[in-house]
Design a protein that fits this description.
- By secondary structure, the protein is mostly helical.
- It has one domain: Arp2/3 complex 21 kDa subunit ARPC3 (Orthogonal Bundle), CATH 1.10.1760.20.
- 83% of the residues lie in helices and 0% in strands.
- It contains six helices and no strands.
Length: 174
């Protein structure tokens, strides 16, 4: 019983560290993005690396908790509209990645999962914006966000792929 409690406490502590890392990456992204000269609404998606890591190492439930916690943090720091956009993008992205993992029997590459997740994240946010604004005019931005999803999703997958061997050697999740 004590071992189970210890591993559960370790899992909760590690989840807290992942959440903190996702927040730090979001803050860094907010500082760096304007300097990159990206079009409005396009960000590198650095915090999504943490969500994908959680999905692969801790499971879908933990990844969903991270998406929820990130959205709550956005609510606290940027308000209801930003939180709704964060949640809609995050949960759409996670759902597509889970579906792809299920359909491919967990054989989908980081690249496919990340790019499809990034595109779906953007489309989920567009859908929420259309709902929030009561107009479909936001969908005119779809081609730009699909291209951005391909580019940023590729960057995210390459970063995660480069980090995973080291993170696996550290054996952080056990």
């Amino acid at each position: 019983m004590q071992r189970n409690t210890k591993s559960q406490a370790r899992r909760v502590a590690f989840s807290g560290m992942l959440f903190a890392l996702a927040i730090v990456l979001s803050v860094v992204e907010g500082i760096v993005t304007p300097a990159l000269g990206l079009p409005p609404g396009i960000k590198p998606g650095l915090a999504n690396i943490v969500v994908m890591y959680a999905l692969f190492t801790m499971g879908a439930g933990q990844a969903a908790v991270l998406v929820l916690m990130k959205s709550f943090f956005v609510f606290l720091t940027r308000g209801v509209a930003a939180a709704a956009l964060s949640a809609s993008g995050g949960f759409c992205s996670l759902a597509v990645m889970l579906l792809l993992l299920l359909l491919t029997r967990r054989q989908a590459s980081y690249l496919i999962l990340s790019v499809m997740g990034a595109i779906t994240h953007n489309l989920g946010q567009l859908a929420m914006a259309a709902l929030w604004l009561s107009t479909a005019v936001s969908f005119a931005y779809t081609p730009v966000l699909i291209l951005a999803g391909i580019g940023m999703g590729t960057m995210t997958s390459l970063t995660l792929k480069a980090l995973m061997p080291t993170l696996q050697k550290l054996n952080l999740t056990n």
